[in-house]
Amino acid sequence: MGGPSDPPGGTPEGAPGGGDDEYRSVVFDESFVRAAHLQEFSAQERIADHAPAVRRRPPLRRGLPRQALILVVLIAVAFGTAVYMGVRHPYQSPSARPPAEQTRTTVVPLAPRGTVPGAADAEPLFEHSPAAQFRAGAAGLPLPAFHDTAHFADEQVRNALLIAKEYVVRSALDPEVLTGGQTRSVRLLLDPDQFAQFDESVDRPAADGRHAATGWLIRFDPARARLAGTEIRVQGSLRFAETDSSALEVVAAHTLVYPLRPAGDPDARVSLFTVRRELRFRFDRDDLRLHQARLTLATLQAGPLSCAENTADRLRPLLAGQTAKEGGPAGTDPYATGDAMGALCGTLAENAQPKL
User: Fold this and answer.
1) If 0-12 CB within 10 Å is exposed, 13-18 middle and 19+ buried, where does residue 85 land?
2) pLDDT higher than threshold 80 for residue 89
């Protein structure tokens, strides 16, 4: 006999565990009821109107709610406005950088008054010269005390000083550069806007105030001289200043003293060769970020040299026991047209030479 919830005739034979079990997985929640296309009239409605037992419900509206649609439209309008203002804003800063100015170079050979002194090795020459207190290599160009400026942070100032010092080291202390073997390490520190001028100076040097290779870097004629040992004495300083709100200037002023021997003669006497150099660098924020510099001015005085020698390509030092050749640079014609830069020459002071 069936229970209160069973059908009058009991559970049909073969039904799995009762008739209600097969519907237990169906849940008639509120969303299911609202989604139904047919709705049954109430008993009162059927008695009063003699209407059919069911009526068709209006279809539900699909899509986004009105509030969500309005929000999407507002976001689209705001995004479009931002893009338009970014492209068309009259106060947007220009994306193109101003081109780098051409570097000015001045190379002045210093001729000795007499014979160049020499010794068996470099040490006694250093001890009896003004370079006795100079430090070896990059240690002779220490960083100064630095601070922030009106528009540049202290870290940016420090970075500018480090790049300037690295340029000095690469261009004047690297043995491969000094012998004329390579120039790429120096070139990579320059702003790419200066590559063309640098390449022309190295490949086709000229004493025109713009294209002297020896203005960009120090290199000796390998057929004339070579380094006697690895120690190069250096004394110098770095100073910085903010030139305007977009740029820093760093000036590297330094004196370098090279011990040299004649090429191809390892037993020849050693002499000293002195270079006084000043380099001016300009750094904008892109240069600091990319670890590069714009060299704006290079001034070099070097000796002992003969004024009759071409110093735009390579330096051809006078070595131990040699004297300056007769003659000097050709006179400058003030009526000639073209570049106004004339050949320059000076005299090497006697107290700049070692006193043995």
Assistant:
1) exposed
2) no
User: Which amino acid is it at 71?
Assistant: L
Contact at 8 Å (CB) between 129 and 272?
yes
DSSP secondary structure letters along 226-263: EESSS--EEEEEEEEEEEETTEEEEEEEEEEEEEEEET
Residues 317, 304 contacting (CB under 8 angstroms): yes
- Predicted local distance difference test score (pLDDT) of residue 57: 59
Are the CB atoms for 115 and 322 separated by under 8 Å? yes
- What is the four-CA torsion angle of 95, 293, 300, 353, rounded to 10 degrees? 170
327: tokens are 């003659």
Report, as an integer, the average pLDDT of 228-239.
Answer: 94
Strands 135-136 vs 346-347: parallel, antiparallel or unpaired: unpaired
Give the residue among 303, 312, 314 at the shortest CA–CA distance from 347: 303
Q: Which residue type is seen at 276?
A: R
- How far lies 158's CA from each of 27, 161, 173, 192, in Å? 73, 5, 21, 22
Prediction pTM value: 0.71
To the nearest 10°, report the CA torsion of 34, 38, 44, 50. 160
CB atoms under 10 Å from CB of 120, counted, come to 12
Calculate mean pLDDT across residues 116-142: 95
Specify the DSSP element, H or E, that contains 40.
strand 38-40
Length of the chain: 356
User: 143: which 2 tokens?
Assistant: 């960083």
Cα distances (angstroms) measured from residue 217 to each of 185, 198, 257, 324: 11, 10, 15, 24
Q: What are phi and psi of 159, to 5 degrees?
A: -65, -40
Q: How far apart are CA 210 and CA 213, in angstroms?
A: 9
Q: What is the spatial distance between Cα 216 and Cα 168, in angstroms, rounded to a whole number?
A: 10
Q: Do 137 and 173 contact (CB within 8 A), yes or no?
A: yes
Report whether pLDDT(12) > 70: no
